[in-house]
Amino acid sequence: MTIAIFGSTGFIGRHLVKLLDSSEVTYKKFCHKVNLEDASAIPVEFENPVSYRDHLAGVSTVILLVSQSSPGSFANRAESEVVHNLLPYARFLEVVPSSSIRHVVFVSSGGTVYGQQAGTMIDEHHPTKPISFYGAGKLMVEIMLQTALNELDIPWTILRPGNPVGVDQDVGRVGFVKNAVHAAMTGSKLEIWGDGSVVRDYFHVEDLAESITMSVNNTLAHNKIFNVGTGVGTSINEVISLIERVSSRKIDTTYRPSRYVDVRSNVLSCKLIADTLGWRPRRNLSEIIEELVLPLIC
Question: At residue 61, what are phi and psi to the nearest 5 degrees?
Answer without folding.
Answer: -130, 135
